[in-house]
Amino acid sequence: MGTTMDIQRDRLTGPLRRSAVKKNVAAIHVSGKLTLLQRKLSNVLLLNAYDDLLSKPSHRIDARALCLMIGYNSNDTETLKTALRGLAETVAEWDMLDERGRQEWGVSALLSYAKLKEGVCEYAYSPALAEKLHDPKVFALINLNIQRRFTSGHALALYENCYRFVRTGSTGWWEIALFRRLMGVDGSAYYETFKHLNAKIIKPSVAEINRGSNIIVAPEFRRRGRAVEEIRFRIRENPQLAMFEIDDGEAVRGGAVYARLIGLGVGDRLARQWIAEHGEGQVAEKLAYVEGQGSVRSPLRYLSAALRDGFGPAPATEAAPERLTRDPKEQRLEAGEDRVAERERGQRAARLRRVRDAAAARTPTRRDADRKLFAAGLRDALDAEHFREHGWNSALNARAILAFWEELEPGIFDGLD
């Protein structure tokens, strides 16, 4: 598989350079049973096809670019086939008013067909569903930069169903039976109990949306006696991530920081995403840090780690005289921060050594299963590639590795702090 830069530069053309996709509310309402991968795949396919939904009977996208955009960087085409098969087997149902106020009900498979041939994915929508997906009057804007942050299919389903109401501030009341359908858990006896639905679906989904998306949601309940019969979600914009709504790329592409990223080999979409998430100032600072390291094996990965994990510029020798003239209190604070950072690096190194020891003590079959389980949860293509190359020694994935093993073997790091 080519590098991320090659795929982004050579394959993500036309509509794929946009960061958001129009998603019809009727279609959103019936896709609750999709897995996280299928849901992301559905949105990317729609983004790719949107401009030609009504004019072309089928659509094509490079399979490697498709995997990149959904955060699945693998040569394992069976996973992609399974996800496409799921879309073809999932029924979309809509019930809405037409332009004359008449009720219209319809049903269609999400994809009428899909096929993979010579590295290209070809797929199509039924004419009736294509018309609904393209309807400019009733749609929600699903931002793929936001979508990429989700790790739960239920959270992404709730986000899609809430985001279209951000301007009205509330979803309105949904019957609990309808809500279970939206979340894809209708038919499950376990989730017939509201306590389980709240603990396993509602609370975790709300927490993930509020932590990583451009909206903040809060559930409210209507009861009859002690039984919860209806639910609605209050919605407001998340001011910290509101920039995702306006990222159309043109203004960003004219900036010096964007040009430096492209010169370093960062693709268009990733460059705009980093600038949106971190701001031009912070990206410029990290660029200077990476460029100051001299010749590194992979500047792109190095920069990704610097932005994500907060690597800072190394103290420069020419700055030493200046520090002598600065406020002694400020110098003491900086020295304390340096000691804290050094201690944290030491603790992380010790924990990674314990991970390597624990992995080595397992049977070969178990070791392979652990690696596959961890790799399946990596959403970033660079992270996945780095883990394939370095395994549990992957510095880019250190935080995720430690969290994974803490859950896999509770207490594994006891005694190290």
Give short descriptive properties of this protein:
417 residues; alpha+beta; Arc Repressor Mutant, subunit A; 4 domains; three-stranded antiparallel β-sheet; 14% strand
Task: Describe this entry's structure for a reader.
InterPro entries: Initiator_Rep_WH1, WH-like_DNA-bd_sf, WH_DNA-bd_sf. Residues 21-162 form the Initiator Rep protein WH1 domain. This protein is an alpha+beta fold and 417 residues long. The chain has four domains: 1-137, Arc Repressor Mutant, subunit A (Orthogonal Bundle); 149-245, Arc Repressor Mutant, subunit A; 249-314; 324-417, no CATH class. It is 51% helix and 14% strand. The chain has helices at residues 4-11, 25-28, 36-49, 63-69, 77-89, 127-133, 144-147, 153-163, 176-183, 194-212, 250-253, 256-264, 268-278, 280-291, 299-309, 320-324, 328-360, 364-376, 381-390, 398-408; strands spanning 20-23, 59-62, 91-97, 103-109, 113-117, 120-124, 140-143, 174-175, 215-224, 227-237. Strand 9 and strand 10 form a beta hairpin. It is globular, with a radius of gyration of 24 Å. It starts with a helix and ends in a 9-residue tail after the last helix. The relative contact order is 0.09.
